[in-house]
Amino acid sequence: MTAEGAAGDSPEGVLLDEPTTADLRAKVTEAWREFAGDLAGLLTRLEPGAQVDLTLDPTASGTGTAVYSVSIRVLPAGAIEALAVGNAALPAEFRMDRAAVADMVALGWSPPGVLPGSGDFFGVRSEQEKASQLATAVTRTLRDVYGAPHPAFLVYRVHDDQDEPIEAGPLASARTEAGPENGIDLGDLDDDEAFAEAVAGTTDELVPLDDRVRTVIATMSKTTVDQLQVDADGDIGIRAGSAMVFVRVRDNPPLVDVFSPILTEVEPTEQLYVKLSELTNRMPIGRLYCAQDTVWASIPVFGRNFQAIHLMLAVQVMTGLADELDDRLHGEFGGKRFFGEGDKPVPAKAEGDEHRPGMYL
């Protein structure tokens, strides 16, 4: 697939219609709001003895051996108890500072050991009828204190007091412990006969383009169309490893845009624009650009005569770009990576390593 073939009917139309028309912060905020709502609904339905375990995926968040988790247990008489990991269970380099501990207390958590039976964990006790308030506190803990960038980076498990799984339905874009390791299968799907059969109908021009796109993404994710996470902008959010990728369908011209925020809160400078232009010229398809304070990567896919393999390739390339470039550009220009802590010190580059090309560039 060439860059021209992927771009759709009108290059001008592509340039005038950026993915940044939707505010990234609003998109992420809405995803967390949906997660809190789903969690509150789940807590009101569970029977005594049921437990919900929520964990920030360390392989995606870059926290190494640190496991940030919250467990919520339903007790008799409509009571709920939640325990959140404390410093005693975290490696030294990932322990919370005084400000973070103060934030935990401000969110309603009792310090470790204060709630009977909490041991080294922060604890809080509430009631099922107040599940919404508890779900909000847990959500803010995972997002603001533990640093989860998006609910898609959370793994959850619902089970009873005998550790038997309980069918609970989805929690927004969080994934179950039994789900695919990276949220999406990026193998050689074009050689998979099952994949080809599953997406065979996506070439039918009488089927709306957004329906065809959702079929492809659901097949890649090994899930159903109904279980895809579609936000208020109509974008499909998919997590692949440490990358967050969005897929948007456009009508005029018919186009599928696969895009990802590489860096946020970055200062636009002449040096940054030069670097993005240089990297774009070396990309096989797609482009990099800065809009306001966010660096985006975007790969448009031809909407007419839509081919599932083109969308699959765009997602594969976008995932590789996001994984590779966020660290590289953060090291040069600062800002915040979507899934990382942008205010962490960045190691100095090794001499002669400035322009080493990566897999996708």
Q: What are the main properties of this structure?
A:
361 residues; alpha+beta; Yope Regulator, Chain: A; 2 domains; six-stranded mixed sheet; six-stranded antiparallel sheet; disordered C terminus; TY-Chap_N; TY-Chap_M
- Determine Rg (CA atoms, Å): 22 Å
Strand content bin? 15-25%
Helix tally equals 10
Q: How much helicity do the residues have?
A: 25-40%
Order of helices and strands: HHHEHEEHEHEEHHEEEHEEHE
Q: What oligomeric state best describes the polypeptide chains here?
A: single chain
| Overall morphology | globular
Q: Helix/strand-derived class? A: alpha+beta
Averaging pLDDT over every residue, what do you get?
Answer: 80
Instruction: Give the distance, in angstroms, between the N- and C-terminal Cα atoms.
Output: 16 Å
Widest sheet: strand ordering: 4-3-2-1-5-6
Would you identify the regions where 5 or more consecutive residues have pLDDT less than 50?
1-17, 342-361
How many distinct beta strands?
A: 12
Main sheet summary: 6 strands, mixed
InterPro entries: TY-Chap_M, TY-Chap_N
Pfam family, one: TY-Chap1
Write up what this structure looks like:
The chain is α+β, with helices and mostly antiparallel strands and 361 residues long. The chain folds into 2 domains: 31-176, no CATH class; 209-333, Yope Regulator, Chain: A, CATH 3.30.1460.10. The protein has 10 helices and 12 strands. The protein has helices at 3-7, 11-16, 24-45, 58-61, 98-106, 131-145, 193-198, 209-220, 270-282, 308-333; strands at 51-56, 69-74, 79-84, 122-127, 154-159, 175-176, 236-240, 243-250, 255-264, 287-291, 294-302, 336-337. Strands 4-3-2-1-5-6 form a 6-stranded mixed β-sheet. Strands 7, 8, 9, 10, 11 and 12 form a 6-stranded antiparallel β-sheet that branches. Helix 3 (24-45) crosses helix 6 (131-145). The longest helix has 26 residues, at 308-333. The chain is globular and about 60 Å long.
